[in-house]
Amino acid sequence: MEITTWINKAYDLLLEYGPKVLMAIVIWIIGIWIIKIVVKNVRKRLEKNDHDPSLKNFLTNLLDWVLKVVLILAVLSVVGFEPTSFAAVIAAAGLAIGLALQGSLANFAGGVLIMLFKPIKIGDYIEAQGEAGTVKEIEIFTTKLLSPDNKEIIIPNGALSNNNIVNYSSQPQRRIDLVFGVGYDSDIKQTKEILMQQLTSHPNVLQDPPPVVALTELGDSSINFVARPWVKTENYWPTYFAIMENTKNALDAAGIEIPYPHNVQINKQE
Fold this sequence. Notes:
Helix 7 packs antiparallel against helix 8. The strands form three sheets. Strands 4-3-2-1-5 form a five-stranded antiparallel sheet. Strand 8 and strand 9 form a beta hairpin. The chain is an alpha+beta fold. The protein contains eight helices and ten strands. The longest helix is centred in the N-terminal third of the chain and has 47 residues, at about 1-50.
């Protein structure tokens, strides 16, 4: 008898909620499809108008989230869960939800601040939160970096917007700081001429501001010179590596020694 009663109740529930659940599933599938089309069209329009890639990704990501929240409310309404009841539940559990979403809200606010003040943009090479890499994507809650060895680094926007950021790409020009140590018996004038010649002869080195070569330190075992050429930001590392190699070859050709530690072995006789 009890089994029959349970079967009848299950049948009644199926009749009452089955069509609603089926309708909710259909609305969800269609809604997700429509959201994808809307977001895709908005993204194309932003690309057509040549908007900042960082702003484009942020806005389309935000639009996607907002439309999905609206869709969820619509699905809950079809099932029979009224939005007003949903709001009442949220209000009743406001403190717990507020604590749970505190980090997410801070990250969202951080994302908005990044979009407003633009300390970084997609393609910039930055250093922040102990990490360094090229900005790959700025989303609502997080920013994704790509490290030089191709690792993806995800940093919360809240932490990113409230701490120091070193942006290596924000300026069109950068100065390369190089230090070369030569032996104490080396001719200072000749060494400076060789270093300057390596800087001025490189095609990537800018003449304005002019490169600088100066004796900077009398070290324990070497005379240290600084070489400071200016280059376009995108040419920084290729120029750095080339000048290092060319200067070493030029100093060797001139017979100017670059000191290095020597291991001296002392034999003790008993």
